[in-house]
Amino acid sequence: MASSSTIQVKITAARKKTSLLRSLPLPLTLSFPPSPPPTVRDVKTAIQKAHPSFYTVRQKLSLPDTSKALPDDSAVLFDSAGDAELSVGDLGPQVQWRTVFLVEYAGPLLIHPLVYHLPKLFYGAEIEHSSLQKSVYAMVLLHFIKRELETLFVHRFSHSTMPLFNLFKNSAHYHLLSGVLLAYDVYRPAFSAPAVAGTWRANGTLLTAAWVVWVFAQLSNLSAHLTLRALRPAGTTTRAVPTGYGFSPPFALSTPNYFFELLAWAAVCALSGSPAAGLFFGVSAVQITLWAQKKHAAYKREFGDKYPRGRKVLVPGVF
User: Which of these, 256, 257, 261, 254, lies nearest to 312 by C-alpha position?
Assistant: First the structure.
């Protein structure tokens, strides 16, 4: 059995010290076999042993005078004396990604039934729901039920946690925009059966077309999610170039799941003509575009010449 070596790692605070970093600088002594050398993950584990409340996913390790986080699997680099220095930042309290998704999608699933089935409480009168209202109600519930099920059984996350603050930020987007505002606007008397009778909102062809587009978009979105799941073996962060429906022609997109998500909500907007639906769609489109650009750039950076040059970011043949 190979003998162990001992090295020194000096841990300094990357920024202003928090209560968890008051004891820094922290000298760590690590023992490890000559090969392989310790990784950033090993250092994080050692820090947690010294400070149990400073758990590994809360730590951000980087080289001194830099802000870029070092990957957990990267090896620690030592100088000629066999020593190393790393800076640690406190990412703050963390929460599971899966938990965040479950909570944010649960909002509309609770809010829409309340407003839809208790109109007297919100509008002061009973409402004879129109086909438009019934369809939007079904589309919203089915969409978020699908998202909850995907969170539980389909999605795999490259990072196990995110900052706790994101739970409130993300939930506000769904609970307020696609929850309270959308529900209150669409189920109000102005969209009821008597109010829309004889108008374009009661057009059966529009209703059918909206459902066709919505179902197509939802099934296509699910297909893209299943493709992404198949690329990442359970328990790993391995990535490969995604191919297949949505990623290859005729769509040829880096983020077809985002495109189909927006298409489904565009169907809701077109069907309802609701200002609240338009607001939610607009805000979502801005955020999704930023995510799509970031993911497209990451694919090109990671796979280089192996990544198909003709792929667009978000919209087939356009962008």
Answer: 254
